[in-house]
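Two proteins follow. First one:
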Amino acid sequence: MTTAAPPEATERLRAAGLRVTVQRVAVLEALAVHPHASADTVFSSLRETLSGLALPTVHGILGDLTGAGIVRRVSLPDAGSALYEVQDEFDNHHHLQCVECGRVEDVACATGEAPCLHPSHDHGMRIIEASVTYRAICSDCERNK
């Protein structure tokens, strides 16, 4: 399958020193449409349009994209596996997770600047990120109780 890669995906891959491939572009596009997706979800969304794509290939691409800083790996309680989202270098956000259905939403940083939370003691380390997961029950699950 030969398709023209979207300029943004192509530029991000090249800027990170990664080769532009149809599979990498497709994974980036899938994450743009399905943020907070597992490797299985990405694979399921692509397997019909990309013949020959295998789940281990998707895992490898997600690893490459995460290592290059293009994609962020999100580990949340009660999520069956790691979730991935396209990383925006200027974005600083946390996550809200429904404890019933697992739905995940982005929540803006409380103070608006990284790392947005400061520990009581930094042990001589420069803090670069703080990760918060708000656990809640979404309105759909609340109505169904």
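Second one, unrelated to the first:
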Amino acid sequence: MSKITIRDAIPSDLEAIIALDRTPNEDKTGYWQGIFQHYVVAGRPDRVFLVAQEGKSLLGFIIGEVRAWEFGSPPCGWVFALRVSHTTREGGIGTRMFTEICERLKKAGVDTVRTMVDIDNKLTLSFFRGMGLRTGRYVELEKRID
């Protein structure tokens, strides 16, 4: 078995990321092109896009950034995307990527990391709870607008 490395995403990773995130009912190619432009091509220290790679295969990715003063809160790190290939889950890849993104966000000057998870997504919710995330001081509220 090859060694799994966690590294910064590069422009040539785009197709592998699209494939890793593909679902039968959605084509998110345009979305991922925009994300790559914003997080990979722009290359700012307050934006982090990491991939997990084994050999020539990408096994996962995590994306986050420093966001400042949302809802009056001080700047903090936000993780807004995480994916690990279903064939390699429970192998510690998500943990390694999350640990690395937290280190990068800390170097960018923040001491708190946040995310949002669909309450029905038990797998992702369990993962982030296992990483030490708990309910924060802000509560998401929503209303459907018909």
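SUMMARY FIELD: Residues 4-130 form a domain with the Aminopeptidase fold (CATH 3.40.630.30). Helices lie at 14-21, 29-41, 93-107, 122-130.
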